[in-house]
Amino acid sequence: MRYQISGKQIDIGEALQSHCKSEIDEVISKYPGRPTDALVVFSKDAHEYACEAVVHLSTGLSVSAKGKAVEIYGAFDAANAKMEKQLRRYKRRLKNHHQDRAQPVELSGASSYILAASGEDEDNEPDTLTPMIVAEMETSVPSLTVGEAVMQMELAGVPVLVFRNEKQANGVNVVYRREDGNIGWIDPNTAP
């Protein structure tokens, strides 16, 4: 497994790196879904340290967690505990999907754009209706079942997930968290 452990404007020592590697290995070894790589980023916000950790599994799922504490080891331990809780919560579902899936999740390339906020008042009309692109990035769109997409969205802690539906040819779908707490699913191929 590849590790990338870094800090934003803070130095990360060898002891902290080895602590992170051993703790992540211990947590991941209890659950299915061979890990491929782990990304851990530390930062400092006023008097607290923050840790963001993401572990990518070969099944296509990503587990991510954030933790904060006064000490840097405590921040990592908080994030690691959240990852373990997520994996424990979805252990049975991960096992079931892992057994059904003979091949790893297929990823398709796509472009992702960040658009500038309009910043216009309601009374003023913008000069043009074409939005200004602030940044352009490469992203991946996984081929998943709807159940796997919901699980991926919950594990990653994101409000929206775009995916290719494995049950349909070239079917791009979206799952999202609704304000009422339920999960919404947009499937354009079944529109009347």
UniProtKB/TrEMBL annotation:
**What does the record list as GO biological process?**
negative regulation of translational elongation
Q: Name one GO cellular component term.
A: cytosolic small ribosomal subunit
Q: Which Pfam families match?
A: Ribosom_S30AE_C (PF16321), Ribosomal_S30AE (PF02482)
Which superkingdom is the protein from?
A: Bacteria
The record places domain Sigma 54 modulation/S30EA ribosomal protein C-terminal at 130-184
Keyword entries, A-Z: Cytoplasm, Translation regulation
Q: Where is the protein found, in the record's own terms?
A: Cytoplasm
The molecular function terms in GO held by this entry are: ribosomal small subunit binding
Q: Family membership, please give it.
A: Belongs to the HPF/YfiA ribosome-associated protein family. Long HPF subfamily.
Q: PANTHER family recorded for this chain? A: 30S RIBOSOMAL PROTEIN (PTHR33231:SF1)
Q: What does this protein do?
A: Required for dimerization of active 70S ribosomes into 100S ribosomes in stationary phase; 100S ribosomes are translationally inactive and sometimes present during exponential growth.
Subunit architecture:
Associates exclusively with 100S ribosomes, which are dimers of 70S ribosomes. Interacts with 100S ribosomes.
- Name used for this protein in its record: Ribosome hibernation promoting factor
**Lineage of origin:** Bacteria, Pseudomonadati, Pseudomonadota, Alphaproteobacteria, Rhodobacterales
